[in-house]
Amino acid sequence: MTQYLMAIDQGTSSSRAIIFNEKGQAVAQSQQEFTQYFPEDGWVEHDPAEIIVSVLEVCKDALKKANLTANDIASIGISNQRETTVIWDKESGEAVYNAIVWQDRRTADYCAELKEKGLEEGVNDKTGLLLDPYFSATKVKWILDNVAGVREKAESGQLLFGTIDSYLLWSLTGEHKTDVTNASRTLMCNIHSLSWDKELLTLFNIPELLLPTIQPSSCVFGHTHEALFGSSIMVGGMAGDQQAALIGQACFSEGMAKSTYGTGCFMMLNTGEKPRKSAHRLLTTVAYQIGDVTHYALEGSIFMAGATIQWIRDGLKLIENASETLDMAQSVGANNHVYMVPAFTGLGAPYWDPNARGAIMGLTRDTGIAEIVTAGLQSVCYQTKDLLEAMAKDQVTPSRLRVDGGMVVNDWVMQFLSDILDLPIERPVVTETTALGVAYLAGLSCGLYENLEQISELWAQEHQFSPELAAEKREQLYKGWLDTVNRVRTAP
Q1: Among the residues of 232-322, which ranges form H helices?
Q2: Which of 66, 272, 356, 471 is the right S-S partner for 343, CB 3.0 to 4.6 Å?
Q3: CATH topology for 4-242?
């Protein structure tokens, strides 16, 4: 009898449910976008209740499309937009404030104050992270300090905090837990002990009563309420979206790397069973914990990838559909002297400049829509090059790069990425690797898979892109990018 796994992929702009068979093949999926709120410059919020509704609807729709019932699902895996922060009432389940999204920059000044006090190195030693608004702790503190009555309720144990994985799990099962990959992105977790750090909680003035229990990435997290899907389903896997993609790409060996091109771009390299500290402003993070074995990773985070193309479409209205970008880029070619720096919410790794803002430079009278669109596509590749250069300075460089996410269907972008990185780019048959990764975690916990080796054998390549651009031209184009970035930076 065929057994199925359901993956909930709760992303920044949409919620999806994908049902996989035991071979890692998708048999049905459903997706639903939800509202983005921008109350002030640099602020980004979601309605937590809308997220829950969207998740339940896509799960039910995927089951219907696959002609399956809850009894056919062996286990559920949950993947989520990381760092996004929710605080909710333990009794009612209602959030006390909108979810503050990972892209949100409202706590930039507070982070700068902590840096000026010389606290970043100590925080980095414990968490592998930097003092940046990106992470959850300063968002939690902002809600506690700025929403009336919340701190008092939090200190009396009436409220719960979670990143989206925890909020979903609590809503589905009543369990207040998180997995170690999500915990490692909060600025509150010591990645060496894999536990909440009391000194960090004191620094950010966050009551420990708020926090979920930290679990391995593959384990029994709980069982869904029967009323939701007709019968109860085990939740057996959880991981933040980028770690989930690393697992879905079967990057289980030290030195293997993947880069995901969704709303943002995230490059992650498996560094094995010991955390490796970066001297070049990359993040050290937990890749996954399965049983007693924990793997760590170096990560570079770029805030704007697919979101750049979305802005070109919806903000500038230069295109009607992202698919139009392929023909435009082919007409312009790689030798484009227009550069776009999409620092709409600041610059991520390796710059970590929350106050930088976007720019388009190199415009001439013969610049048209095609050149600007191509510059937007190239900006994603140049930013990936920034990450690769930082990794090289940390003396870790992958020999090839596995890619996934919505942008990788564009062959021109993938070829330019290979050219600018001077690396082979491997695109898998299944590009929904975030969902696939948590499906694998759920499959491990329910016994559908025995080990990671069995999962590795399921990975299959659809196409490989190899470098074609001359070294001199690659260096010239990248120098132009660096010159442009330096013009918009506000911090050294």
Answers
A1: 241-248, 306-314
A2: 356
A3: Nucleotidyltransferase; domain 5 (3.30.420)
